[in-house]
Amino acid sequence: MIEFHLDARSGVAPYMQLIQQVRHAMRLGLLKEGDKLPTVKDVVARVAINPNTVLKAYRELEYEGLVQPRPGLGTFVTRTLGGEAEVAAHEPLRRDLEGWLAKARDAGLGDESIEALFANTFRRFSAARAGRRG
Amino acid sequence: MTSAVVTEGLTKRYGRRPALSDCTLDIPAGHVVGLVGPNGAGKSTLLQIVCGLLRPTAGRVTVLGGDPVSGSPRVGFVAQDTPVYAGFTVADHLRLGAHLNPAWDDALARERVDRLGLDPAQKAGKLSGGQRAQLALTVAIAKRPDLLLLDEPVAALDPLARREFLQGLMEYVAESGTSVVMSSHLVADLERVCDYLVVLVRSRVRVTGEVEELLATHHRITGARLDPATLGGGRQVVHARHTDVQSTLVVRSSAPIDDPAFTVDGIDLEDLVLAYMSEAAEGGRDRVLEKQR
């Protein structure tokens, strides 16, 4: 069983923090297929957050196909993340990114400009994806 | 969805001074509602009207579908400074609660007292602030109310006691689905526990709605100095600050703002509340929110 925590200053929405912590625990192998997530009541009693926040996070994880609620029993992990396939994908992606970074440097961008451009593009990309799904 | 509290043009005056002016709200049931605003904004007055302790000067109020009734078993109320009877023991408080409330859940009350480590024989006057608040909350929720009203329940508590109080409250909400309206000026706490917000400033409702919806529709815009009037339709400027070259606006807009002339960022609940309150703060008399985490 994992325990959640909340960073009030991170600027990341509380439900998203819970989702990230589940995904993170799955990648690290702390949560495997068949493991149970804490009940909503247990989470709110520990983290002092609104129950709907936990429900929303669990719904989102279910939508992503990572967990499955079983009525009366709880919410269970349905996959094991961070398998070899994902790790194998890292290397070519890293090479692409390094190529992009080299191009940005050649164009005269400094560290802050590169970070801002990446963060901004990533946000737009994620927002567009989220919009398409919703 | 049914409503927990509906008000229409609700007004309360003390002599000539308005404590609540033309307050119109529709608070859906099943939420944890944060009632926020500077001291003297009318938060306590609104809560006391809802629980039937005060009569409005004008306007209408409906609580759980009926008129507010003082001492209603369906409404739990914890007044400011979490009042307990200093000369009564913890056990006396539970006995009194059982005596006064037909739906009293004695098992719940005892289980909570036990878990909190309160000595039933202890006089309430000897408890710490955090323990007194927990006892007052226990008495309020053992009534098994449909609506729980809390007036600044954690304002006087240290951070640990505050966290423990909110943990207990959220656990009960998760289990019971009770509607909660709690006033506070500690927005960081509200951001964790509330999913619905009412901002009162100078006796008036400034903004109200689901937290998620409010966060999704409020944006901080920074860019070269601009006239807020030129921003275009469907965009309400909540707050604007200008230097000689730059403007920083907090804008409410349901449509995304996609203009290369500005940097558009999200906004957290604390900044959102402060934007609505800052007009009052600039007026000088009201105290600003405490920024406390």
UniProtKB/TrEMBL annotation, chain A:
Q: Any idea where the HTH gntR-type domain is?
A: 12-80
Q: Does the keyword Transcription apply?
A: yes
SUPFAM superfamilies named in the record? Winged helix' DNA-binding domain (SSF46785)
Provide the alphabetized UniProt keywords. Answer: DNA-binding, Transcription, Transcription regulation
InterPro entries to which the protein is assigned, alphabetical: Tscrpt_reg_HTH_GntR (IPR000524), WH-like_DNA-bd_sf (IPR036388), WH_DNA-bd_sf (IPR036390)
Source domain of life is Bacteria
Q: Which SMART domains match?
A: HTH_GNTR (SM00345)
Q: By its UniProt entry, which PROSITE patterns does this protein fall under?
A: HTH_GNTR
Query: What Pfam families does this protein's entry cite?
Result: GntR (PF00392)
Family matches, as PANTHER family: GNTR-FAMILY TRANSCRIPTIONAL REGULATOR, HTH-TYPE TRANSCRIPTIONAL REPRESSOR YTRA
Q: What is the recorded name of this protein?
A: GntR family transcriptional regulator
Organism, scientific name: Paractinoplanes rhizophilus
Q: Write the lineage as a comma-separated list.
A: Bacteria, Bacillati, Actinomycetota, Actinomycetes, Micromonosporales
TrEMBL record, chain B:
Query: Is Transcription regulation given among the entry's keywords?
Result: no
What SUPFAM superfamilies does its record include?
P-loop containing nucleoside triphosphate hydrolases
UniProt cross-references to Gene3D superfamilies, sorted A to Z: P-loop containing nucleotide triphosphate hydrolases
Q: Which domain of life is it from?
A: Bacteria
Report the GO molecular function annotations: ATP binding
Start and end of every ABC transporter domain?
5-227
**Keyword annotations of the record:** ATP-binding, Nucleotide-binding, Transport
**Where does the sequence pass through the membrane?**
none
In the UniProt record, does the keyword Cell membrane occur? Answer: no
- What Pfam families does this protein's entry cite? ABC_tran
Q: Which InterPro entries match?
A: AAA+_ATPase (IPR003593), ABC_transporter-like_ATP-bd (IPR003439), ABC_Transporter_VariousFunc (IPR051782), P-loop_NTPase (IPR027417)
List the protein's name. Answer: ABC transporter ATP-binding protein
